[in-house]
Design brief:
Helix 1 packs across helix 7 (162-168). This protein is elongated. The chain starts with a helix and ends in a 6-residue tail after the last helix. Strands 1-2-5 form a three-stranded antiparallel β-sheet. A two-stranded antiparallel ribbon has the order 3-4. It has seven helices and five strands, in the order ααβββαααββαα. 48% of the residues lie in helices and 23% in strands. The mean pLDDT is 80. By secondary structure, it is α+β, with helices and mostly antiparallel strands. The chain folds into two domains: 3-68 and 143-168, no CATH class; 71-135, no CATH class. A hairpin with a 2-residue loop joins strand 1 (50-55) and strand 2. The chain has helices spanning 3-24, 31-46, 81-89, 93-102, 110-121, 149-156, 162-168; strands at 50-55, 58-67, 71-78, 128-135, 139-146.
Length: 174
């Protein structure tokens, strides 16, 4: 294949890619965005996590929801910050030092780190209470499986235009 042939094959594929990218971009206002919103609504209303993709009644793929996992954790709630600070400086100094070694620049994580260490040891600091919180499963995004070009072409009963067939180097009848 000479360089001229390569450019001739590349041009229609590149143009098609740009058009397709505009339709299937994961941002809102695209086909992908609409499909994602439909799947989110289906998941939230019925709990369904997948549905078939059909072309002329023939299954060519599946669209599935991807969800986060439910997470249960101990959360430390300071009810009296003065008592908690005093406890950290005295009885809780070992927990404070452990935290500072793990995350010296992330003081916002102090309560979470203390909560995981403290509740593991069965200790609740002065001025605090521990609550169990569960973050439920949530919709994250969609995943499309299958949807192979030969299957879609066969199911649609249409041929690809010759310019795309040549660019994709597909044999006749596919």
């Amino acid at each position: 294949m000479n360089k001229h042939d390569l450019g001739e094959r590349f041009a229609p594929l590149y143009a098609l890619k740009k058009e397709i990218d505009a339709l299937v971009d994961s941002k809102g206002g695209t086909m992908y965005g609409e499909l994602r919103d439909d799947m989110r609504a289906l998941y939230e209303e019925t709990g369904a996590t997948s549905r078939e993709v059909n072309v002329n009644g023939v299954k060519v793929g599946t669209v599935s929801t991807v969800t986060t996992k439910a997470v249960t954790r101990h959360v430390l709630y300071p009810l009296n910050t003065v008592e908690f600070a005093h406890w950290l400086a005295t009885d809780g100094i070992a927990y404070f030092r452990e935290f500072m070694q793990k995350c010296p620049r992330e003081s916002r994580k102090l309560l979470d780190t203390c909560a995981s260490s403290i509740t593991t040891d069965g200790v609740v600091p002065d001025g605090c209470e521990v609550r169990m919180e569960t973050e439920p499963t949530r919709f994250s995004h969609i995943k499309v499986t299958g949807c192979k070009l030969p299957d879609i072409i066969a199911a649609s009963g249409h041929e690809l235009p010759d310019v795309l067939r040549d660019a994709l180097m597909l044999p006749e009848g596919e």
